[in-house]
Amino acid sequence: MAQRIGLQMEQALTGLQGTGNLPSLSEPPSAGMTNPRVSALVARYGDREGFLKTFNPDKQDECLRNPELSYMGGAPTLGLVRKAFGSTAEAWLVIQLAELSEYAGVKEKLTTRQLTDTALLIQQMYGHFKVTELMLFFRQFKSGRYGRFYGSVDPMLIMTALKTFAEERAEKISLYAREREKAAEASASPPIKPSEWKARRGHPVDMAISKIITSSHSDNETDRSKIQTP
Known about the structure:
It is built from 12 helices and no strands. By secondary structure, it is mainly α.
């Protein structure tokens, strides 16, 4: 399977280069290196091979186990990868798509042309997605969350599922953002001042606490008097 994916990827990349829209994989990172975010990405992953190794399909399960990190973590977007490493962004998508195609239990797999077109389409429409978000999508697709293929791997079904995932993504990011905001507000709450404790004396919870403290103090006084008795 690995050899077939490798061959498909090589053929797909040849097709991508043939469009005239992508730089050669042999070229150095783009002029976007003047962008500090691009420079940070290159410094973090080193080169194309380092990026592809870090975000290979085997890591999809980690994204599924920790969806919040997939959405809210510091992984680069597909568009940023494109700026830093050129057509490696599309090459990475071809790898993910080819692996999904092999995973599907159908006879007809994605053709080289379908791999190429689908990778370009995802890059164009969802370049603002983090690579970890897309890995989460592919893993959830494998779980049957977005339906299944019948007879052949259908690229239109993949794109339809990705549209559904985009809607889920917006909801999840909003949810996680609210949860983090609440947590930040809770941690930033100032301690209760003595004057506020006095104002709260009549509160049922405070009265109960006061009663416990008073009872404990009384018991301690009793124990102390017993000890002093000859």
